[in-house]
Design a protein that fits this description.
There is one protein chain. By secondary structure, this protein is α/β, with parallel strands linked by helices. The protein folds into two domains: 178 residues, 3-Layer(aba) Sandwich (Rossmann fold); 208 residues, Glycogen Phosphorylase B (Rossmann fold). Helices cover 45% and strands 17% of the residues. The strands form four sheets. The protein has a six-stranded mixed sheet with strand order 6-7-8-11-10-9, with helices on both faces. Helix 9 packs across helix 14 and helix 11 packs across helix 15. It is globular.
């Protein structure tokens, strides 16, 4: 397994080294997979105590309480992190792939660092390979568009696969990237390349067909280049349903639920919730505008409803993220000054970083979950909320621009670009009969329980194993 973000990191707390799990839907889902399958996970070490927790080979076994697989860390310089992660990956590729009207920034120096870091990961991955013919490399996401080709050129017998967790844009958008052909050629080093949706696969086929000298076979869903074949398939990712359900039922969550109701003054109130990194693709300002309209249009819910936005700050080295952070603060202040009365706050924005178990307590708290993504490959928060609603009731409001909307058909559909529609949907979700909401939720829970992270990985690896046998 190869990813930028590590599944476990180490920090100093009270003078001791402590292991924590970053609140990343992708990392948590793939950690469940690795605990089942075993193997080695290569990732960048980012915790302040990460080096101290490793052996002299930069490795350790995880999870700490019951080790199942090896975590191999590599170390990026500040300049590499700045130009590769905050730079090309998140200032160029991220906005390029998301239709959220933020202009990508293409910097030649950052592109060179992106290539350097991909080579650095390639060297570490290859150092972990003992038998290329018996090794599968599973690469995660847009941070490593060049890595597959690097690995294949070094070890042609390696089986290399990748899952691209974000959308793939259409050709007219992708063609503005100055290094588009190199990115495509890098991805075609994979034996199998997965996206969330067939729509993303179709965009990728069209982009390759119009950019590179290659042969696209739409009957086999394959691309042939340099006498090699890359299969491209949709695999909608999911979560470890049982893990979230167990967290939701735990005594720790029950205690935390009561604490939150007390400390946030929520007793007797209906609660709405948003859970996102502060990212412009998530539609958070649009969501807060809808909350403003909701309280204006339905004043009977003033002092009866509070909306909580969990929004850990992210990528503040990038100007657009700084501006978003300020805009969210502005919306919170405006709504609370306009409608707040006494101890009641209409909106509570919490920007701290919470563990996944703590987030589950917020899921349990929320009568209404609002996901107003402007563009999202999947959005695992939607599935996490559904899995955590063990009491059998809860309303999910979901943007059609998130991949999860194709599967979670029991959700209330909202257009984030129409805040009045979102406000009306919140009202409807609060007013609809409990039996109706319970039926919607039950259908979604059943879907997520069946189509979980283990089924996702089984389908992916079955497709990978079948590759040499397909005509």
């Amino acid at each position: 397994m190869v990813s930028n973000r590590e599944p476990y990191m180490h920090i100093y707390r009270g003078g001791e080294v402590e292991t924590i799990m970053p609140a990343s839907g992708m990392a948590i889902a793939l950690d469940s997979l690795m605990q089942t399958c075993g193997g080695t996970w290569v990732a960048a070490g980012t915790g302040e105590a990460d080096r101290e927790a490793c052996t002299d080979r930069d490795t350790l076994m995880v999870p700490p309480q019951d080790p199942k697989y090896k975590l191999r860390r590599l170390w990026l310089t500040r300049e590499e992190e700045r130009d590769y992660y905050y730079g090309f990956a998140n200032s160029a590729l991220w906005p390029l792939c998301h239709v959220a009207y933020s202009r990508p920034r293409f910097d030649p120096g950052q592109w060179e660092t992106y290539k350097t870091v991909n080579r650095k990961f390639a060297e570490v991955v290859l150092s972990e390979v003992t038998d290329p013919r018996r090794t599968i490399v599973f690469i995660q996401d847009y941070h490593f568009a060049l890595l597959p080709r690097m690995l294949k050129e070094a070890e042609p017998n390696l089986v290399v696969s990748q899952f691209w967790h974000i959308p793939w844009p259409n050709y007219e958008i992708f063609r503005i990237c100055p290094w588009g052909p190199e990115i495509l050629d890098g991805l075609l080093g994979n034996d199998l390349l997965g996206f969330h949706l067939q729509y993303h696969c179709n965009n990728f086929f069209d982009t390759v067909d119009r950019t590179l000298e290659s042969r696209v076979d739409l009957e086999k869903f394959s691309i042939f280049r340099r006498e090699r074949e890359t299969r491209v398939r949709p695999f909608p990712i999911s979560i470890d349903f049982d893990r979230f359900e167990a967290w939701a039922k735990s005594l720790h969550t029950e205690r935390r639920l009561r604490e939150l109701q007390h400390t946030l003054n929520l007793s007797g109130l209906k609660v709405g919730l948003g859970v996102d990194r502060l990212d412009y693709t998530k539609g958070i300002p649009e969501r807060l505008e809808a909350i403003d309209i909701f309280f204006r249009k339905y004043p009977q819910y003033q002092q009866r409803f509070t909306f909580i936005q969990l929004g850990p700050q992210s990528r503040l080295h990038i100007q657009s993220y700084k501006q978003l952070n300020a805009l969210v603060d502005s919306w919170e202040e405006e709504i609370n000054s306009k409608y707040g009365q006494g101890r009641w706050k209409p909106v509570i924005v919490l920007k701290g970083h919470y563990s996944q178990e703590e987030v589950v307590a917020f899921y349990r708290l929320a009568d209404v979950m609002v996901i107003s993504a402007l563009h999202d490959g999947m959005n695992l928060v939607a599935k996490e909320y559904v899995a955590s609603r063990v009491e059998g009731e809860g309303a999910l409001l979901l943007s059609p621009f998130a991949g999860a909307s194709r599967e979670l058909t029991g959700a209330y559909t909202i257009n984030p670009y129409n805040p009045e529609e979102t406000a009306d949907a919140i009202f409807q979700a609060l007013e609809d009969p409990s039996e109706q909401k319970a039926a919607r939720l039950a259908a979604m829970r059943s879907w997520v329980q069946e189509h979980n992270i283990f089924q996702w990985s089984a389908l992916f690896f079955q497709a990978l194993i079948r590759l040499p046998k397909e005509d």
